[in-house]
Design goal:
By secondary structure, the chain is α/β, with parallel strands linked by helices. It has three domains: 234 residues, Aminohydrolase, N-terminal nucleophile (Ntn) domain (Glutamine Phosphoribosylpyrophosphate, subunit 1, domain 1, 4-Layer Sandwich), CATH 3.60.20; 173 residues, Glucose-6-phosphate isomerase like protein, domain 1 (Rossmann fold, 3-Layer(aba) Sandwich), CATH 3.40.50.10490; 149 residues, 3-Layer(aba) Sandwich (Rossmann fold). It contains 18 helices and 24 strands. The longest helix is centred in the C-terminal third of the chain and has 19 residues. The radius of gyration is 25 Å and the shape is globular. It starts with a strand and ends in an 18-residue tail after the last helix.
Length: 588
Amino acid sequence: MCGIVGYVGEERAAPILLEGLQRLEYRGYDSAGIAVLREGQLAVVRRKGRVKGLGAARSLEGEIGVGHTRWATHGAPSERNAHPHVYGGVCIVHNGIIENAAALRAACEARGEVFSSDTDSEVIAHLIAAEKGDLLHATYSACRKLAGSYAVAVLSAAEPDTIVCARRASPLVVGCDERGLYVASDIPAVAAAGRKVYALADGEFAVLRKGSPPRFFDGALKAVGKQEIVYDAAEDIPAKGGFRHYMKKEISEVPEAVSRSLCDLSKGEFSDLCEVLCHTQYLHIVACGTAYHSGLCLQYAAQKFARIPAEAFIASEYRYSDPIVPPGTLAVAVSQSGETADTLAAAALAKERGAKVLAVTNVPCSSLERMSDFVLPTRAGREIAVAATKSFNAQLAALYSLAGALARGRERAAPPLAAAASCVREALAAAEQVRGWIPYFLGARSVFFLGRGADYFAALEGSLKLKEISYLPSEGYPAGELKHGTLALVDGRTPVVAIVTDPALADKTMNAVHEVYARGAAVFLITSVPACLPCAEVTASVLLPKCAPAYSPMLTSLPLQLLAYYVAIARGNDPDKPRNLAKSVTVE
């Protein structure tokens, strides 16, 4: 969500900034811009829309600059509201939300200052310009007046060889090599072989000055040392590999992602976590969006196999619900990016109330990993498309591994997870059959996804995928709850996708199929129960291999992901970059 890049060094800044912004496009944005400083003059180019619209900026001269991709919060997506923002010779780019921006802006306007945008971010430039002293101290003084979250990079015409950076509750990293110094909101924007990268912690500042190594300061401006982040630069430049879209490529990578993410928690690297699992009495699972759906799957498996009380919480609700955190609670925080603001805050609250925190994330060195007691990595590899696909399946593999370890620690048995994982590739091949369903969805008014047990959680995720990239209204619903009001919405323009993988619940879910068919709906079936296939009321079906029903979302998610993908393409949408959405949600 939003992206920052900055550079100061011996080379022209503009091409470096544009390359960095292109690497951050996966985060989601609706406008972009760069500013380059040369001989005391700031040149700014901003555009609504994609980074490719900044082509004219490539010719800008100057060896220091900042760039930004904006996801609109305050103020509509427009060139006027795009970053960078400039006031009084100070130029800033900002990620986050300034919660007291209205009051600060009113104070600035009372002094006669004029604003040129509707954003909350611009007030930062005004505050810094009003401060005395060098750029570091001016930025420090301004940041002390801000409430909310920020990652900010600052230029000043008064210090033409310096970028000052600050961070609170929004990620920021600094890089350096023989070419110069870099700042970015994410490692991919600065990834390159031989480049050293460091992460700012909350409340920290950095000074990037041409010809000098980066300097770091804590919240009291006391100099601090930094440990270099170890990462694989090659992994940060994925190619489409012949696929039309990253989303399709990433769905094709699900089998490998699942295989890599299966964990034997009895191995040495997890010994401390296993000790905690043996004494865990409660699970609190905090997550958002797709990660929340994987958390629901953990809740189901942990209660079924380990017989441990478990509850999945939407992270933004958990942090404001004054949760009861009993002794012996393990908080499992799930986030693909490891930077999800609400998940970080929920995990911090659980930790504050005595819980141990286990991070489940796909991004090494993320904020979530650094603040947690334990880390259970998912190994999906870089995911570029905004809609999570392979990272969801990788989360399931890791979380089901955790459920199995909890069961074994209580001398209980969980079904062999490897047996389910071995079916993923077969399920992926079968899932391609959904391509033939597309004509029924193009004229749809809305779509329902139905399931029971673990199939209900898959229905939730299938609905989210369809909404994210096709923009069709849809809802995932417990099959047994449909007739308690929601059936009123079903008619001939409401396709229904029924998911059936548990033979013990198959007849119950098929009852819902009969009900929606009687109201005119076309019904599509995703099942591993062959006895359901002869149903004459089903328009089309996909038969998946059998696995333990609790693990079935690893398989049923595949036709659901492909259904969303093909419907999006048929509706003329870009499945990699859905409107209004961001890959890394770093604000509330």
